[in-house]
Every structure is written in C-alpha cells, then in structure tokens.
Design brief:
3-stranded parallel beta sheet; 9% strand; 4 helices; single chain; mainly alpha; globular
Length: 139
C-alpha cells in the first residue's frame, strides 16, 4: 500500500488555493456529505450533518481524498413543523447539488462520492447521480 500524504486539512473550504492545486495534481476524489438541520429530540439539529461529515473524513483519510462539508440544508421530510428545522424541497436541493457537482467536475474532481445518513436523502442524491451521469458521462 502506498503511504498517504500528510495534509494540514482534508476539508476543501479550509484549504488554501495552493494546497488544492497541489492535491489536484495527484488525486481527484472528493466526498460530499449531505445532511439536514432538523429536530432530533434531544440531539443537536445538525446531527444528521455531523455524522456523515465524520464518515466522509474517515474515508478521505483512507483514500487520500478531500471533503466538501457544511451542506446541512436538504429535504427533511416529516419535521418541518419544528422551529429549528430548515426545510428544502427535493427540487431545490437537487438544483443546488447539481451546481456543486458541475463546479467540482470543472475544477478537476472526477470522482465525487455523495453520502448521507438521512433516510429521504435518496430522493435528492439518487436523482443527482442519475442526472449528473446523463449530463456528463462521469460516474
């Protein structure tokens, strides 16, 4: 196994321009955790964003990947009545994700892995996977 390069951070927004350019020269994988900001009983509203980010970071560390985190505003499903819930329609979430996916591809990230622990995330993420492949032929 090839040893992975030590990095100051694997979170794309926390990197410098130079760090990203250096990274893109050797690899092209980015993990994109999708979450929600919604009521979860006594847990913080962002629990379904924090957990996927943690998994994404572990995967990035194992594969010399990066993480594009801080995407907690997607379709919640059954909890829009809570005052802390941020509700996003599936269509609006899909439009937002497609713009991100195309931007990442244009910047050199050919391998994009979208992950979530939220039950209804397949509505947005699944549509993204199909539409993005149809538009770009990039798996």
């Amino acid at each position: 196994m090839i040893p992975l390069k030590s990095m100051r951070t694997r979170f794309l927004p926390k990197m410098t321009h130079g760090e990203v350019c250096e990274y893109i020269e050797r690899n092209d994988i980015i993990y994109v955790p999708l979450g929600t900001c919604e009521v979860h009983g006594t847990f913080p509203l962002d629990v379904e964003n924090t957990a996927p980010e943690a998994f994404a970071l572990l995967m990035a560390e194992k594969t010399d990947g990066l993480v594009l985190g801080s995407l907690p505003y997607f379709f919640c499903g059954a909890s829009p009545i809570s005052p802390g819930t941020i509700q996003m329609s599936v269509a609006d979430g899909l439009s937002y994700l497609k713009a991100i996916a195309h931007s990442l591809l244009n910047q050199g990230f050919r391998r994009q892995v979208y992950l979530s622990l939220h039950g209804p995330a397949f509505l947005t993420g699944g549509a993204l996977a199909v539409d993005f492949f149809d538009e770009t032929k990039c798996p």
